[in-house]
Amino acid sequence: MIPEKAKRVFEGVLFDVYQWSQEMFDGTVEIFEMLKRADTAEIIATKDGKIMLQEQEQPGKPPFLCLPGGRIEKDEKPLEGAKRELLEESGFISEDWSLFHSIRPSHKMDWSIFVYVARDCRFVQEQNLDAGEKIQIRWVTLDELLNLVDSGQLGWIEQDFRVQCVRAKYHQPTKEEIIKALSL
Fold first, then answer.
1. Residues near 159 by Cβ (< 8 Å), separated by ≥ 6?
2. In the CATH scheme, what is the homologous superfamily, with its name and number, of domain 40-182?
3. Average pLDDT, the chain
């Protein structure tokens, strides 16, 4: 966490930089620094025993596969942001949500990723995409998901979930844990 005494020295579009003086064990003082960015959510959305993937394009990047998700706004709780992102990017909603896990991927960055499960999704509206997004929805089985992760074709995925997916491909008890968590 960024200490209260830290000063924001740069405000960017995605990242802010904070610095503060920190006394060392020998009495000297060093400048510490940390990045801050908006928390993000990834959604493992299910429907009829399948998992939603996105075939996404963004300017300046090659097309990629990913789970739905994005930045959580300042005034949102993580689950609210996940629900909004799923609706905007796919047009689907769910009445059955749970936190799969959350992680802080770096000790040098104030940023958390929340991975949610949205079960029994249903379509309610057309996508409401950002100007820099082109998204096609694709539904896959768990085995297809595991193969896509293991082969590297599904590269944009939270790292701990990636590890679980690769393990689940080769370890039946881990696969059963995922099946249970996703209610597949």
1. 103, 105
2. Nucleoside Triphosphate Pyrophosphohydrolase (3.90.79.10)
3. 96
